[in-house]
Amino acid sequence: MFKKILKSYDYSIIAVYILLCLFGLVMIYSSSMVMAVQWYEYPADFFYQNQKLNLLAAFTVFLFFAVFPYKAFRNKKFLIVMTIISVLGLFAVSVLGHVTNNAQSWIQVGARKVQPSEFVKISVIIYLSAVYANKQRYIDQLNKGVFPPIIYLVFVCFLIKIEPDNGTAAITLLIGLMIIICSGMRLKTIIKLIMMGVLAASLLAPFVILKLDKFFTAGNMKRISGFLDPFGTAGNEGFQLVNSYLAIGSGGLKGLGLGQSIQKMGYLPEAHTDFIMAVIAEELGVFGVGFVVLGLGYIVLRGFYVGIRSRDPFGSMLAIGIAGMIGIQTFINLGGMSGLIPITGVPLPFISYGGSSIVVLSIAMGILTNVAMFRKYDEKFKTKKTTPEPKLESSPLNYRNETKFRNRSKLNI
């Protein structure tokens, strides 16, 4: 059985994950060495050494969650404890939070900082997936099946928003909406939710406009003005975006060479975190950017494939939620550094510097790997003597069709 389990792992996902992490480690050293010395008077390899420790912790949690059965997370007691800890962590930020880049999103734990909102993303994925998997029989009943998880989702997004961390709040909300859409609800129910959302947004819009300064800080407004007119505000709000353009434009097809970036010499702020892709483009050109985009794209598409093929509704929504989280976060990061959307301060998955980010992503990858393993194991090695009647415990995307098939079979009998 142990050999069968080992054969069932999707080693392509594991290989791409490790390659991206190691590539990111190299680029963190290249993009941060000048800033570490000039800005902070640290050793040139300060951020590189820190990220090595982060990766050690990340690979450890990845291995644990890759072998730990994901179905255990469906336990009600675990879900209650997890949600309470998540909410308490967000509340703790408002009291003990450490301010960085105008956002009070971190808690100092010894010599390191922890960002609770990063861990909330994976807890939202687990919670929504488990709750909607348990509600498959009455998934279309608004009061009983739909609204309770949505209330929790909106509440934690609000707590993240007031830190303020608009980027992480947007990612968390979009992840939740993706899981809701893929939960097995009828199209009619989803349309009702959309109409309710539009109505709620229409009612709140005048209040938001009147209290715009309360919802968007001065830093948020500067990012928006820098996005709308980067070259007109190049000396202030648009400084980071303009230097990102210069880095991207300087790289060309082949790049200037590893370690040869000019923009990282104090011109491009946050070169090793939010804007690390600009340095990759400058030093390694289209080939470096293509390697990262293709790697991330493969993980996202493979995650969706696992989710669609999984027969377990919980595993299906877990895989889709994790793939969606990585895809959404990648789009927001690349969109910000290329001027497609306003800058949000969201790190690039597996590549940017950051302990909380890489640990949470590794937990997510471990769970995705475990879901993929069980899906493949069930398909290849679980033999069945007779063709069973379709079970209720199946992918939420196929649940409706299987129920109809069962009802028709009973009528024919």
TrEMBL record:
InterPro entries: Cell_cycle_FtsW-rel_CS, FtsW/RodA. It is found in: Membrane. It catalyses: [GlcNAc-(1->4)-Mur2Ac(oyl-L-Ala-gamma-D-Glu-L-Lys-D-Ala-D-Ala)](n)-di-trans,octa-cis-undecaprenyl diphosphate + beta-D-GlcNAc-(1->4)-Mur2Ac(oyl-L-Ala-gamma-D-Glu-L-Lys-D-Ala-D-Ala)-di-trans,octa-cis-undecaprenyl diphosphate = [GlcNAc-(1->4)-Mur2Ac(oyl-L-Ala-gamma-D-Glu-L-Lys-D-Ala-D-Ala)](n+1)-di-trans,octa-cis-undecaprenyl diphosphate + di-trans,octa-cis-undecaprenyl diphosphate + H(+). The keyword Glycosyltransferase applies. Its main location: membrane. GO terms for cellular component: cell division site; plasma membrane. It is a multi-pass membrane protein. GO terms for biological process: cell division; peptidoglycan biosynthetic process; regulation of cell shape. This is Probable peptidoglycan glycosyltransferase FtsW. It comes from Lederbergia citrea.
